[in-house]
Write a structure and sequence with these properties.
Layout (H helix, E strand, L loop, with lengths): L1 E5 L3 H13 L3 E5 L2 H10 L4 E4 L8 H10 L6 E5 L4 H9 L4 E4 L4 H16 L5 E4 L2 E4 L4 E4 L2 E3 L3 H12 L7 H9 L4 H18 L8 E4 L3 E4 L2
Parallel strand pairs: 1-2, 1-3, 3-4, 4-5
Antiparallel strand pairs: 6-7, 7-8, 8-9, 10-11
Length: about 220
């Protein structure tokens, strides 16, 4: 599933793009409504996440032009404007949903699933490695048909590994993908979470999927 983000705050845009990519989405981020409109003319996207207050073309004008061009892409407004009048205006113009900053990322993911399900029906975003299946949409994992119960951090780490199967990732790179930045303290916890995953993913099976490549990092075999 491909997401277009229109957000002029680079800090918000960068974090959103990284976290959505970690959740299994293909993401393009632009800084204003004009660039978003151009992107929609040249590429196919499944949903647009747009700020309202942007330079060159604000979110409301962007939405108006999208609907004038008969494009039915779901549009989710992401904004600090939280008055009822602002919300009603956006929805009346054809927005599919509205989420107010600050927000929980899990709520944003839920609203993305809801908006795309309403428009396109149910979609899956599943990754495999051997007999391991990880579903980025439902946040569930199973091996040989048996569900693996994981904490959120364990699931996020497993998703990163399976999205990069057969690629060796250093602790520092995993920490950057997992937390959004490269921090020595965070990277030192990666080995701990890898051990947690091994117990849940590999211990009951003869074939071990998660490997340590000494001096380099970790990988999952596909």
């Amino acid at each position: 599933m491909k997401i277009l983000i229109a957000e002029d705050d680079p800090a918000i845009s960068t974090v959103l793009k990284k976290r959505l990519q970690f959740a299994g989405y293909d993401v393009l981020a632009v800084e204003n409504g004009s660039d978003a409109l151009d992107a929609l003319e040249t590429e196919d996207f499944d949903i647009l996440i747009s700020d309202i207050m942007m330079p060159q073309m604000d979110g409301h004008e962007l939405l108006k032009r999208i609907r004038e061009r008969k494009k039915d892409i779901p549009v989710l407004f992401l904004t600090a404007k939280d008055s009822s009048a602002d919300i009603v205006e956006g929805l009346d113009m054809g927005a599919d949903d509205y989420i107010v900053k600050p927000f929980e990322f899990s709520e944003l993911l839920a609203r993305i699933r809801l908006a795309t399900r309403r428009r396109y029906g149910s979609r899956e975003n599943r990754y495999t490695a051997g007999d391991l299946v990880v579903d980025a949409m439902t946040h569930k994992a199973e091996r040989a048909g048996k569900e693996i119960v994981l904490s959120k951090k364990e699931f996020d780490l497993l998703l990163i590994l399976v999205q990069n199967k057969n690629i060796v990732l250093s602790k520092e790179r995993i920490a950057e993908l997992l937390y959004g930045w490269n921090d020595e303290t965070e990277s030192n916890t990666i080995a701990v979470y890898i051990n947690f995953l091994r117990r849940k993913v590999d211990d009951d099976f003869d074939e071990k999927l998660i490997e340590t490549v000494r001096g380099f990092g970790y990988t999952i075999k596909g």
